[in-house]
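Q: what sequence does this backbone want?
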């Protein structure tokens, strides 16, 4: 098992602040970037009854805005992350294309490897931290290092969900609730590479 990578004094400091989900998530983000590496990070919460997720963090508003809903498809990602509560990772764009309808957007941004780190509470996935990086990046060793951050990631999502789950985010700024459902047009699933 990977050693605990975080400093409990820093965790306590973040938890003592108002809207503690925001500073705690910032601490987790810094740790994941340092220990695992990440070119682009988002985070999502899940509405499984409606088969959708909502982005609650982005470090690139131009690429991925917060607040929008994204449809969930029953595929290998869903089976791995939502049903089995395990991380999902790929090392090639072809693997990403098998499960994510926006794979061309991911490729256009220069990424070819992803990692989705689930936050699990009461036996359910309540959110994920989603990482993108260059092709080949998210090896089993890096996934194991990311998993060491999973308990704090879960705490972040639990704190966030104590607010309004329709509008809360890890940026701590006001915004409108997302009404857009990404991927809701004619696509019925991810498309294969041509």
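A:
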């Amino acid at each position: 098992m990977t050693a605990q990578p975080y400093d409990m004094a820093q965790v306590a400091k973040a938890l003592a602040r108002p809207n503690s989900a925001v500073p705690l998530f910032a601490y987790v983000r810094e740790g994941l970037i340092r220990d695992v590496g990440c070119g682009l990070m988002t985070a999502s919460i899940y509405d499984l009854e409606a088969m959708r997720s909502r982005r609650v963090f982005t470090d690139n508003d131009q690429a991925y805005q917060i607040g929008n809903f994204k449809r969930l498809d029953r595929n290998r990602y869903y089976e791995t992350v939502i049903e089995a509560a395990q991380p999902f990772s790929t090392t090639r764009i072809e693997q990403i294309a098998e499960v994510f309808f926006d794979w061309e957007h991911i490729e256009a941004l220069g990424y070819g490897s992803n990692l989705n780190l689930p936050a699990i509470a009461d036996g359910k996935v309540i959110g994920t931290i989603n990482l993108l990086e260059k092709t080949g990046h998210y090896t089993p060793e890096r996934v194991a290092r990311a998993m060491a951050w999973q308990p704090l990631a879960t705490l972040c999502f639990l704190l966030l969900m104590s607010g309004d789950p329709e509008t809360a985010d890890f940026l701590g700024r006001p915004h409108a609730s997302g009404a857009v459902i990404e991927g809701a047009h004619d696509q019925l699933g991810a498309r294969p590479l041509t």
